[in-house]
Amino acid sequence: MPDVFVNYRTGDEESAATMIARELARRFGAERIFFASNSIEAGRRYPVELVKAVEECEALLAVIGPRWAEVLGADGRPALEAEQDWTRREIRTALDRGILVIPVLVGKATRIDRALIPDDLLELADCQYKRFDHRNSESDLTALGDTLARLLPDLGTADHDARAARERAEAKSRKKKTAQDAGRTRMRTRDVEQRVRGGIGNLNGDLSGTFLNEPQGPVNTGRGHQYNAPRLQGDNTGVQFTAGDNSGTVHQRFEREGRRSDDGR
Length: 265
Prior knowledge:
The chain is an alpha/beta fold. The protein has seven helices and eight strands; from the N terminus they run E-H-E-H-H-E-H-E-E-H-H-H-E-E-E.
């Protein structure tokens, strides 16, 4: 069952109708778009196929160019005036069944003139239309497809462009996250390399404790005794002390040239 029926008049912008049908088939799948010259198999009875398709569709696009109401029939009169004109019958069937009808005005076509259409199509003049111009074909086709995807939820689920857009967005998000994670890893590695020097050994796990930048000599940051061994030269008459919270006994050993003294306090 097609979702969208593309209605057009031979002799008035068939090329535009073909472009619209082809693009919608690409985007939503050929089985969801009915276009008479492509959708009716050889040998099928086209009157039956046309009526069935228009009755079962969810939306009908009435492609209308500048000559839509002027094209003449076999009798030399405007084809639109004939009750059995297929363009007229398809639109009338859709209107009578309450199907969504969207006029697509092509090129220089203006809003539908109620004076030029038969009474059974007057409602068509009140339907909000979309525009299609060959000079802006890509953007106009995209806008038309977006409108159909929004108005017809079932059609929207088959939207190849939306699926591709989601996949591109997800891939971009994954790539961005990977880059951010790599950046944070490089920053942590560089931070450790810049702040930890000397013979500390191997660092593993979460480094959340205290770091001593460029320690010189023995360092003990745990509990127990702390030993300091500064080398003193000259006259050192001041008080030597260890700053911070030292919960154990502090043993200091002073060395001068020629003698050694121990202080056990």
